[in-house]
């Protein structure tokens, strides 16, 4: 339901519901839904409600200052950006009707739609866009998405509906960054975002108006009849907060929930009976993210490339996909999603080969000298701990399988599962880890400066594996400062080659997103962007409507 | 009576202080600092912002100062604001969830007493009978079953397969459009499974206690005397013995409050009931210290109240105490 | 000789009473069987409990896997058997810690009385006032949820009952003749506590420890449900049951067997504890 993650970049796969929500958020071409009902036989009509399940409560109603995907999902129905991604991941008009980019790429001029109304009836103007920008760069705003806006050199309001932004140098993700949720100046100016009335009763321009948030219970949204793209068909959107995954699934089976994500086991084994197939449509497409095993490159043992390559060879990725995803996923070879224009399929791969792994480790000086089955060097056994976050079954299973495989080549692995907040604050930020299993969520733009650039290794920054490679730095710089797609493609192809060869992290797999929607909902058209991009066009034919007050 | 109450209340004050100190210690066991959450995942939030937060929450001051500041606010029921991104007042967050948890626990306790007391009496008067043995096994099975497992099994049976009862939550989605009687019926239907599961687990404690207490009483001299006087057995048991056997049960009522509240963590999570237990788990995971402290303190205060209530009812039931205090 | 005396005075009447209680005997038998299972787990388990096979995910019970396989294709029987060790370990160590603290503080309070007693008992009251599970959760969530933390925290939050028992026993015993005379003979404090009073206090402590083990096993499973229990790949009944919860409808075996294991064990300990208590309590003898 998230229509393009505004500041794009990456969301460090989020809190407890990571996969569940990720599954809903994004998708790709080979989407093959088993949608019920033939298109065209039903008439779109207004009415009914859709009930979604969320494993965690939202953390706030102003998405700009939250970082969990549940809040973003809700926020994206209440607010709009100037631009958004369409079903093919192209940037298209949202509040901005059109825009001009200067030849040198340094200046973007937005022409806003006229007559876009905030939910309280006030008209949206360029002043609101300017206000949003100021809020985002204000150091007092507790947001994680300010970086893109710091690239802005100058910003000016030309008239009520025109708005111009200038950059000091070409900045490829510039346009996408204006997908940020626009905030109402007339309600927020001079107020603390967190304490403002808006934080309890948000006013946006989006397709849905906020109705109520019962903490820990539900969030209810109601259709905005004056939405500028037309009133959405579904009258109410209800997010039910259900903190236990098993309960969510039972509710789904009892038809108390219309829309959620499935686990691979549920997808393949628990939903293949006639009643379920009649009542729900399952979808499957490649998710926008991948799971990896990352090394702390400050650890001398992992600084040796041969050790990292050996570990890559010791892991059987097919087995992971089989065991963790029941085959519902693809091998990851680099930091990009297969099938995108910048994805390089011809990089070095690391087939499962324990003998080769042992040989590489031997070259690096790791041998089993005392015959206890564990490799050692200078009497130091090869032993490390893999950390991962709690609440993610996939990562837990991945850790268990890797642990076993590494033991077979003589590396002893411990697993530690830590709840998210502590995991990030105590271990990742402080670099107190040896290895981690985590996922990166991906945005449509290939700029991954924040993950791989050597200047981004600070405690609050995302290059937490402390990867440093001058050539990679150069390619990242080149890639983000040009608009020429062919050039960018060349840079990112080269980047993938280096990363594949160096294995600063072992790229494990790209999971499939497995959303399920009650079959009374029509108008769902799977596309590269998944299914949620056209949510406002979903409808329930009159005769199938269930919740009629 | 009033005197007695006042005395009891005064005795609670050192307890309360102890409670706050332990809560405070628990919080500071945590490695790392609680301020990081406000800017969680904020790779772009600078060190300056963090320092500001630290000052805001007084975390740059020495521990005892932090404690005293916090204590003085706590007395005024001001627990501060939650560290979570919603930044709401802790007292509001707790207040909106507390009634649900209390409702659940009161219903649970009521059901437990209604079932456990008769079981306890009957198994005592028929010690080692088939009834005694069967109920012993049944109540212990209740205690021994991991409650989240039982909850899931019942959800599958009554929710998915039979479709008789709602699976989770507290209200149906169309709750607000229902007439009043239907709203109450709706609420009751949602409460049946959680209360049932919770009560089943709690039967053992009370029924065994009741049995024990009854066994002791019926071996007392005055009961023998009553019997010797030729009073009918029924009258001996239910008039003389029962009253005395019930007294100790009343005292453990108060003590069982913390256990009940603690147990609500599991039920509220599995049944998706937005009560205090659920809030506590989420806050513990997120290291939302103000909320954790608030709930620990409120939970302890509730227990104190429970004890007080138990004491008062005890003194009402037992004339010896009343006379002793007033005389 | 001493043994004989003990036997006559204490064990024999106890046993006479205990063996008449069939439920208690059943409990005792369950506990013994459990010990055997845990001790012999390496011999009894048909597979390595961590050996997975992605081709055999969630297979129903069969001759090859009598209790089926789990979500990684591991043998559930082997995991439940090995899990018995962990679950029992958690139970015993946690109760050991609780008992040690309880006996120590209870003895101090009971023996010295006065302000020592008042202070310790106030502390007991404070601890009893906390919702224990909240305290457990907070501490485990903050610290590392390793098996040691879990055992430690269950122990540290569970000693109050023992302390009260021991103290009460002291109060009733210390005015008795044999203690008085020992003191008159100039025996040191710790000697009096160790030789005369403690042995008499042990019976109720034993009963409470038996219940404590059952409680600790249940607590571990509740913590596992919240993801704070024993960490993978070490199997405990709590975490196997939690794994099974997500697949409860297609793979009933994955939750049924660990669930039953917990149920039967906790039941066994409770019946045993009740039996011991009844047999020890002269007032309840018929």
Give structural notes.
Chain A has 549 residues and is an alpha+beta fold. Chain A is built from 18 helices and 22 strands. Among the domains of chain A are: 134 residues, Dipeptide-binding Protein, domain 1, CATH 3.90.76; 224 residues, Dipeptide-binding Protein, Domain 3 (Dipeptide-binding Protein, domain 3, Roll). In chain A, the strands form 6 sheets. In chain A, strands 13, 14, 15, 18, 19, 20 and 21 form a 7-stranded mixed beta sheet that branches. Chain A has a 4-stranded mixed beta sheet with strand order 1-10-9-8, with helices on one face. Chain A has a 4-stranded antiparallel beta sheet with strand order 4-5-7-6. In chain A, α12 runs antiparallel to α14 and α17 runs antiparallel to α18. The longest helix of chain A is centred in the last third of the chain and has 18 residues. The N terminus of chain A is likely disordered. With 327 residues, chain B is mainly α. Chain B has 13 helices and no strands. In chain B, α4 crosses α10, α7 packs across α9 and α10 crosses α11. The longest helix of chain B is centred in the middle third of the chain and has 39 residues. Chain B is globular. The C terminus of chain B is likely disordered. Chain C has a single domain, classed as MetI-like (MetI-like fold, Orthogonal Bundle), CATH 1.10.3720. Chain C is built from 11 helices and no strands. In chain C, α3 runs parallel beside α11. Chain C starts with a helix and ends in a 6-residue tail after the last helix. The model of chain C has no long low-confidence stretch (mean pLDDT 84). Chains in contact: A-B, A-C, B-C. Chains A and B meet through β10, α7 and α15 of A and α4, α6 and α11 of B.
- The total count of helices of chain B amounts to 13
CATH fold description of the domain at 90-317 in chain B: MetI-like fold
Number of domains of chain C: 1
CA-atom Rg of chain C in angstroms: 22 Å
Structural class of chain C: mainly alpha
Query: How many H/I helical runs of chain C?
Result: 11
Strand content of chain C: under 5%
List keywords for this structure.
heterotrimer, B: 327 residues, mainly alpha, MetI-like fold, 0% strand, globular, disordered C terminus, C: 286 residues, 11 helices, elongated
């Amino acid at each position: 339901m998230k229509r393009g993650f505004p500041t794009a970049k990456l969301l460090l796969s989020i809190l407890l519901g990571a996969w569940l929500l990720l599954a809903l958020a994004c998708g790709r071409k080979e989407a093959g839904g088993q949608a019920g009902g033939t298109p065209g036989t039903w008439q779109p009509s207004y009415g009914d409600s859709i009930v979604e399940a969320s494993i965690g409560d939202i953390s706030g109603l102003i998405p700009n200052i939250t970082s969990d995907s549940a809040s973003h999902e809700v926020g994206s129905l209440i607010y709009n950006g100037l631009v958004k991604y369409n079903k093919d991941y192209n940037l298209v008009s949202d509040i901005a009707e059109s825009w001009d980019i200067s030849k040198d790429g340094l200046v973007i001029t937005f022409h806003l739609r006229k007559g876009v109304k905030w939910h309280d009836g006030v008209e949206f103007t360029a002043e609101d866009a300017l206000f949003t920008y100021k809020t985002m760069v204000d150091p007092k705003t507790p947001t994680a998405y300010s970086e893109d806006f710091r690239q802005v050199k100058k910003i000016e309001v030309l008239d009520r509906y025109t708005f111009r932004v200038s950059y000091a140098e070409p900045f490829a993700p510039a346009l996408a960054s204006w997908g940020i949720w626009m905030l109402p100046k007339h309600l927020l100016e001079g107020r603390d975002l967190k304490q403002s009335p808006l934080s309890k009763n948000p006013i946006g321009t989006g397709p849905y108006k906020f109705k109520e948030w019962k903490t820990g219970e539900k969030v209810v949204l109601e259709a905005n009849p004056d939405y500028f793209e037309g009133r959405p068909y579904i009258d109410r959107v209800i997010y039910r907060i259900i903190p236990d995954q098993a309960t969510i699934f039972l509710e789904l089976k009892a038809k108390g929930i219309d829309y959620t994500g499935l686990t691979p086991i549920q997808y393949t084994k628990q939903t293949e009976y006639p009643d379920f197939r009649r009542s729900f449509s399952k979808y499957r497409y490649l998710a926008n993210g991948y799971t990896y095993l990352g090394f702390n490159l400050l650890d001398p043992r992992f600084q040796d490339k041969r050790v990292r390559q050996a570990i890559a060879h010791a892991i059987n990725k097919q087995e992971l996909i089989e065991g963790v995803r029941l085959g519902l996923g693809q091998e990851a070879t680099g930091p990009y999603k297969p099938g995108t224009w910048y994805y390089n399929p011809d990089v070095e791969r690391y087939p499962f080969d324990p003998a080769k792994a042992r040989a590489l480790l031997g070259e690096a000086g790791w041998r089993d000298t005392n015959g206890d089955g564990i490799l050692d060097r200078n009497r130091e056994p090869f032993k490390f701990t893999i950390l991962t976050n709690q609440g993610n079954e996939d990562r837990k299973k991945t850790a268990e399988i890797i642990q076993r495989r590494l033991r077979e080549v003589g590396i002893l692995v411990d697993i530690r599962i830590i709840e998210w907040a502590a995991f990030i604050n105590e271990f990742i930020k402080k670099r107190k880890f040896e290895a981690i299993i985590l996922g990166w969520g991906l945005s449509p733009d290939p700029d991954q400066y924040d993950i791989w650039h050597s200047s981004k290794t600070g405690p609050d920054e995302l290059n937490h594996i402390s990867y440093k490679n001058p050539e990679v730095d150069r390619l990242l710089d080149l890639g983000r400062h040009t608009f020429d797609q062919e050039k960018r493609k060349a840079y990112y192809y080269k980047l993938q080659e280096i990363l594949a060869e160096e294995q600063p992290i072992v790229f494990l797999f790209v999971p499939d997103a497995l959303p399920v929607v009650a079959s009374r909902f029509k108008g769902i058209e799977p596309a590269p962007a998944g299914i949620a991009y056209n949510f406002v066009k979903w409808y329930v034919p009159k005769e199938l409507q269930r919740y009629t007050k | 009576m009033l005197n007695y109450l006042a005395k009891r209340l005064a005795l609670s004050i050192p307890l309360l202080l102890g409670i706050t100190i332990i809560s405070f210690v628990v919080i500071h066991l945590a490695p790392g600092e609680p301020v990081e959450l406000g800017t969680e995942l904020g790779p772009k939030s600078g060190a300056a912002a963090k320092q500001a937060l630290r000052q805001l929450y007084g975390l740059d001051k020495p521990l005892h100062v932090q404690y005293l500041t916090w204590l003085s606010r706590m007395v005024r029921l001001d627990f501060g604001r939650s560290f979570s991104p919603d930044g709401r007042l802790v007292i509001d967050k707790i207040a909106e969830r507390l009634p649900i948890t209390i409702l659940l626990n009161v219903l649970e306790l009521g059901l437990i007493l209604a079932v456990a007391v008769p079981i306890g009496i009957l198994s005592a008067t028929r010690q080692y009978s088939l009834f005694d043995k069967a109920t012993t096994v049944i109540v212990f099975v209740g205690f021994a079953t991991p409650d989240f497992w039982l909850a899931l099994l019942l959800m599958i049976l009554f929710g998915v397969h039979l479709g008789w009862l709602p699976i989770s939550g507290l209200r149906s989605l169309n709750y607000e459009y229902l007439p009043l009687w239907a709203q109450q019926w709706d609420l009751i239907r949602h409460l049946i499974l959680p209360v049932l599961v919770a009560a089943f687990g709690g039967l053992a404690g009370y029924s065994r206690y009741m049995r024990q207490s009854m066994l002791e009483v019926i071996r007392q001299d005055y009961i023998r005397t009553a019997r010797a006087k030729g009073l009918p057995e029924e009258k001996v048991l239910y008039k003389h013995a029962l009253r005395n056997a019930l007294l100790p049960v009343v005292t453990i009522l108060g003590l069982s409050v913390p256990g009940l509240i603690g147990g609500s963590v599991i039920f509220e999570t599995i049944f998706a009931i937005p009560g205090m237990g659920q809030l506590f788990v989420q806050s513990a995971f997120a290291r939302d210290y103000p909320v954790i402290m608030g709930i620990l303190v409120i939970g302890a205060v509730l227990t104190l109240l429970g004890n007080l209530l138990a004491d008062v009812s005890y003194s009402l039931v037992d004339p010896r105490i009343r006379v002793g205090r007033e005389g | 000789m001493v043994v004989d005396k003990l036997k006559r005075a204490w064990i024999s009447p106890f046993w006479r009473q205990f063996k008449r209680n069939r439920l208690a005997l059943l409990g005792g038998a369950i506990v013994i069987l459990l010990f055997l299972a845990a001790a012999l787990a390496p011999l009894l388990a048909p597979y390595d409990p961590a050996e997975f096979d992605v081709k055999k995910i969630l297979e129903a019970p069969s001759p090859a896997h009598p209790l089926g396989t789990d979500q990684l294709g591991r043998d559930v029987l082997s995991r439940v058997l090995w899990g018995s060790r962990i679950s029992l370990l958690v139970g015993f160590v946690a109760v050991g810690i609780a008992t040690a603290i309880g006996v120590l503080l209870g003895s101090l309070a009971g023996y010295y009385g006065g302000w020592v007693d008042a202070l310790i008992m106030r502390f007991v009251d404070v601890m009893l006032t906390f919702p224990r599970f909240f305290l457990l959760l907070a501490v485990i969530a903050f610290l590392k949820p390793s098996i040691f933390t879990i055992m430690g925290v269950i122990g540290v939050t569970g000693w109050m009952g023992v302390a009260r028992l021991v103290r009460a026993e002291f109060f009733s015993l210390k005015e008795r003749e044999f203690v008085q005379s020992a003191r008159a003979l100039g025996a040191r404090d710790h000697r009096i506590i160790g030789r005369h009073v403690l042995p008499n206090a042990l019976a109720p402590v034993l009963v409470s420890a038996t219940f404590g083990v059952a409680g600790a096993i249940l607590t571990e499973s509740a913590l596992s449900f919240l993801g704070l229990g024993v960490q993978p790949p070490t199997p405990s009944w709590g975490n196997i049951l939690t794994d099974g919860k997500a697949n409860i409808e297609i793979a009933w075996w994955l939750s049924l067997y660990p669930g039953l294991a917990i149920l039967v064990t906790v039941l066994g300990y409770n019946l045993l504890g009740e039996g011991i208590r009844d047999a020890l309590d002269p007032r309840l003898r018929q």
